[in-house]
């Protein structure tokens, strides 16, 4: 099973803690089904940090700014679609 990050003490104001809270808020306002909530912060964190590494030090480091925008838009779109799917 997945760890319960929502119960983590001491990180409620850290960037990861804010992400945990944002995922909880998405469920609370009905934008994310509750069954998709467990571990959602890992998915979001991994996507953003993985993408950053690809831009900084990987095969996407040579992209033009408009290409970067397109890649980011697509990655966010796919991630959000997955997290909010019924």
How is the secondary structure organized here?
Blueprint: H1 15-28, H2 40-57, H3 65-84
Protein name: WHG domain-containing protein
Organism: Streptomyces daliensis
InterPro entries: MT1864/Rv1816-like_C, Tet_transcr_reg_TetR-rel_C_sf
Explain what you see.
InterPro entries: MT1864/Rv1816-like_C, Tet_transcr_reg_TetR-rel_C_sf. It comes from Streptomyces daliensis. Keywords: Transcription, Transcription regulation. This is WHG domain-containing protein. Pfam families: TetR_C_33. The chain is mainly alpha-helical. The protein has one domain. It has three helices and no strands. Helix 1 crosses helix 2 and helix 2 runs antiparallel to helix 3. The longest helix is centred in the last third of the chain and has 20 residues. The radius of gyration is 15 Å and the shape is globular. The two termini are 21 Å apart. 6% of the residues are buried. The mean pLDDT is 91.
Short description:
The protein has three helices and no strands. The protein is mostly helical and 86 residues long.
Number of domain modules: 1
Helix content: 55-70%
Specify the biggest β-sheet: none
How does the overall form come out from the CA principal axes? globular
Radius of gyration: 15 Å
Q: Helix/strand-derived class?
A: mainly alpha
Strand/helix succession: HHH
First-last Cα distance = 21 Å
Average pLDDT reading: 91
Number of strands: 0
Q: How much strand content do the residues show?
A: under 5%
Helix tally equals: 3
User: Low-confidence segments, ≥5 residues, pLDDT <50?
Assistant: none
InterPro entries: MT1864/Rv1816-like_C, Tet_transcr_reg_TetR-rel_C_sf
Protein name: WHG domain-containing protein
Domain HTH-type transcriptional regulator MT1864/Rv1816-like C-terminal: 15-77
Keywords: Transcription, Transcription regulation
